[in-house]
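Worked example 3. Consider a protein that binds flavin mononucleotide.
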Amino acid sequence: MRILILMGSPRVNGNTAELCKPFLEELKMIGADTRYVTLAGKDIRPCLGCYTCQDIQGEYGCIQHDDMYPIIEDILWADIIVLACPIYSWYCPTLMKSVLDRHYGLNKFYGSATGSLWAGKKLALLLTHGYDREYACTPFETGIRNLCDHSSLKYIGMYSVRDIDNKAAMQTREAVEGAKEFARKITGEAK
Ligand SMILES: Cc1cc2nc3c(=O)[nH]c(=O)nc-3n(C[C@H](O)[C@H](O)[C@H](O)COP(=O)(O)O)c2cc1C
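Given these inputs, the predicted complex is written out as structure tokens:
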């Protein structure tokens, strides 16, 4: 089982990265093949909305040859894609939003090309946030559920921890065990 974690916090050693540690550890214990990709520092430009990708059959087809291409390779490799990020302004940080918008070339819905390059894959969320879970995460989770629905991906759930006192909040027994349990849950769903 191949699991891609896209870590979208600008803080590469921040709260989200801390929460990813027990999650990754458990995935490795289970025997999953994992890739952990940090978006910070990468050149992932915003979608231009040019629709060129919609006329290119069978491949991603984006005209912007930046760091999104290796990420697309990772996405195509994975059975499960985990978006790990903090909530920023009720959604996600900018680079993660660019990745989400740049999914366009994977769905050939609006031009002469047809089909999907990633239908059937599974997607999960691992989030950190300052407000309480429901108030903080519902808009992003709803957007991701809808994206999955639209793209014929299977949304397999969210685990999140509230940032009360920075990294310490990610190191509590509850947070660590929760992240591990979530790793077991998503791998169980994928069987
Ligand atoms: C620019 C910015 C925007 C934020 N927006 C929200 C928000 O809308 N809702 C929320 O609950 N927390 C928000 N937070 C708090 C972060 O989600 C929280 O501190 C998170 O754990 C940071 O994770 P990191 O250390 O991995 O970056 C925001 C933080 C920053 C820096």
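Take a moment to read the result before moving on. The first strand starts at residue 2 and ends at 7. Residues 133-151 form the longest helix (19 residues).
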